[in-house]
Amino acid sequence: MRMLLPLRPLCFVASATVVSLPAHAAGGHFDVDDATVAETGHCQYETWLARAPSARTTLFHVGPACRVGPVELGVNLDHAETRSEHHDSLGPQLKWVADPLIDKLSAGVVVAAAFDVKHGGRPWKTAYVPLTWWVADRLWVHANAGADWAASGERTRRLGLSAEWAASDRLTVIAERITYASSWTSRLGARVTLTEAISVDFSAARFSSGAAGASRVYVIGLNHDFAR
Q: I need a surface site. Which of 61, 156, 159, 228 has the fewest CB within 10 A?
């Protein structure tokens, strides 16, 4: 799985939070990141469309990234819309990963920022450690631990856990639970591999926060890896 940064909480559209959260995902739109990077000489892009029907909110994301030496450098662009307004955010991301136990355990560091394109101001910032444990040939467990800093300077914790099971050569099932930006998200989804380089994601999630209550979020995404 290759995420670029976690999916923004769509129910926060009433405030600037919806455009401030850097987005990355276990690849694609999934919020819990994995400890992998693109192969040497490769680039990738991840794009997805998310919809929260009860909040009447839509989010479109594009996130290209390339392997540069030992790190993966990426850019995240997001456009969020409600009935009455829209927001755009743009920001960089850096990811570094090491494999202390080859094919068993990987760990890394991710740092990212997201700037409000329309209103400017201070960026939303994220820093966390992704871990990936290869439990078996077709089962992986991912964990994230870190923090987010809102434009106001408020700091909140980021903790997440997910399991990824390859049901077949073409179908992978992913379940995750994460807290960030003072909210909780539970997600169940799947990835369908179309070719060695292209895959499609689907998921349904329950997002909840003290300020916005609970909401369902549905996502469809496309991932493409290619040699540059």
A: 228
